[in-house]
Amino acid sequence: AEVRFGSTEVAAVAPVVGEQQAPVHETPAADTVIGLRKKTFSEILAERQEQAKRTVLINCPLEINEKKLLKYLSTHGNVKNHFFYKTHAPYAVIEFSDADSIASVQDSIHTPHFEHEGFVPFKSRIFTLTSRNPPNVAAQEPSVHHHAQTIMRFGDLMPKLCGANSMSDQLHILTEAFQLTEENIRLRFLVCSLVQDIAEAYFPGCVVKPFGSSVNSFGKLGCDLDMFLDLDDIGKNFGRRKTGPFNLEYLIKRVPTQRVATQRILSAIAEVLDNCGPGCVGVQRILQARCPLVKFSHQPSGFQCDLTANNRIALKSTELLYLYGSLDPRVRPLVFSVRCWASAHGITSSIPGHWITNFALTIMVLFFLQKRKPCIIPTLDQLKGLADPEDKLTTEGHDCTFVSNLNKIEPTRNTETLDVLLVEFFQFYGKFDFKKYSLNIRKGKEQLKPEAAALHIQNPFEKNLNVSKNVTAPFLDKFVTLAQESAWLVQEKQNGPSSMPWGLAALLQGPVAQNANRKVKVNRAQTIQQIRGLLDSLKSNGLKGERSYSTQ
Ligand code: GTP
Ligand code: MG
């Protein structure tokens, strides 16, 4: 058992760790508490980043002797932790106790020689290991356990869901099955750290940090990896001397606006990723979007990466979601299940369009939880009221202050079960007056809509923005109808284990199980709708490409 990023729950998975090493849950980075105090989001992030710095990725043969490999690597230093996984090829993730061990490995190995091809030399932390033994000897090696990095098939989960004792249990089973694993989180931090190595070639001192669902505690296996290139420490004026007869400054490149600066920085990084980044393929520069970004695939990990810069508010939104997810054990399973329900019915999509984004949907769940009596989670204004002086933060003129110390937040007195909450969620939004009201998690109250938009959800930090501006009226109608139908369906089929899908299982299957033809039609309609949405979004952005939240 181990503690996941941001999760206060204990999950029952058995990570394969080397015999002589400490099990994963004993390493400091996997813990979310120090004594009786829960660690802050920044503390967990910093520990994970430091751990990633001591880690390397090795492409190794499918059949490999684990003991021999560890012994071989131990000549460079103590291997603290390791695990294996397979994407298009098998890999080992090796964490050393000491970062110096990596330099020792790098000094002892060579770059490959290709007869008919050229190569760009780069001493990265991704290596290839081959066996010196003839293939027939190597083939006799015992196979190692490869940790799954992708989600299990929904069909495989169905029997488990149907066999659960209650709907609350179903929500927990779904969360356990689809959430990010400890190994997947480690891999995400490692990829950020590897991209940082590359970015440092241009910007020494930069930091690449994960944000979004990789770290907000609501991530599903297979979700994209959102990265943020942090150049703040380079730009800061450390120890500036204010005395003496002179003032000494760096000569820096001046550009018309901060946006142009972000575009130039990302363009430079895209260039180096594309031309020299080991394992980085399919680099796309989407620099004209409201939030400029570089998209690429990181082949060794299989992650689809979105790299942004100057996007500090998204980092704070991530921390806020993480904080809400940690406050009460019901928040994560509820958000998780609603996200899965929405994705199963085409309410959300990773393609930009008229649908609700996962971010907006999560805020809808949080708002609903604030409206329960007694409330299950506090409002953002209450979290601001609890903030310590060091939590004070204003970014681009927006107040992003809220408490980081989780121990200061009183637990709720609300004891409603997840069964009740899920049904109530659907009923709440099935009859919510979207025409009149905007959702505001800062106040925990609906407010008169400040502007015409089908769905208005106030951005928690940029108060004049609507995080769901992209959602059209017909799409919102679809959401409302589905919520009403789901409330009905879930009450109808809540009667416990049977051979027919019930509760959450029925909800996730929805109309699909009842009518196979309808499934084909729904899929076709969804595909057409997705293509239309994609075309619309390209049109409205002058064919420049767009990020899901760039429409606000
Ligand atoms: P996935 O769909 O699993 O990737 O969820 P996600 O939460 O990672 O969403 P996404 O990759 O679209 O966005 C990454 C992060 O950017 C979110 O977690 C938010 O912090 C932020 N973000 C996304 N959409 C919006 C938006 O509409 N407004 C603002 N202010 N921030 C957003
Ligand atoms: Mg994401």
Q: How does this structure look, described?
A:
Mean pLDDT is 85; it is low at 1-29, 512-523 and 540-552. Helix 11 packs parallel to helix 16 (503-509). This protein has helices spanning 41-53, 66-73, 100-108, 135-138, 154-162, 167-178, 182-199, 232-235, 258-276, 312-327, 331-344, 358-371, 380-385, 418-430, 473-492, 503-509, 511-514, 516-540, and strands at residues 2-3, 10-11, 33-34, 37-38, 55-59, 79-86, 90-96, 126-128, 146-147, 207-211, 225-230, 280-286, 293-298, 303-309, 394-395, 398-399, 437-440, 445-448. It is of the alpha+beta class and 552 residues long. The two termini are 41 Å apart. The protein binds guanosine-5'-triphosphate and magnesium ion (MG).
- Overall average residue pLDDT: 85
**Mass-distribution shape:** globular
Major β-sheet annotation:
5 strands, mixed
Give the strand line-up of the largest sheet: 8-5-7-6-9
Oligomer: single chain
Helix amount: 25-40%
Number of helices: 18
What Rg do the Cα atoms give? Answer: 25 Å
Distance between the termini: 41 Å
Ligand identities: guanosine-5'-triphosphate, magnesium ion
Please provide the count of β strands.
18
Structural class: alpha+beta
Strand content: 5-15%
Offer a concise description of the structure:
It contains 18 helices and 18 strands. The protein is an alpha+beta fold and 552 residues long.
Write the layout of secondary structure elements.
Blueprint: E1 2-3, E2 10-11, E3 33-34, E4 37-38, H1 41-53, E5 55-59, H2 66-73, E6 79-86, E7 90-96, H3 100-108, E8 126-128, H4 135-138, E9 146-147, H5 154-162, H6 167-178, H7 182-199, E10 207-211, E11 225-230, H8 232-235, H9 258-276, E12 280-286, E13 293-298, E14 303-309, H10 312-327, H11 331-344, H12 358-371, H13 380-385, E15 394-395, E16 398-399, H14 418-430, E17 437-440, E18 445-448, H15 473-492, H16 503-509, H17 511-514, H18 516-540
Parallel strand pairs: 5-8, 6-9, 11-14
Antiparallel strand pairs: 1-2, 3-4, 5-7, 6-7, 10-11, 12-13, 13-14, 15-16, 17-18
Helix pairs in contact: 1-7, 5-6, 6-11, 11-12, 11-16, 14-15, 15-16
The structure holds guanosine-5'-triphosphate (GTP) and magnesium ion (MG).
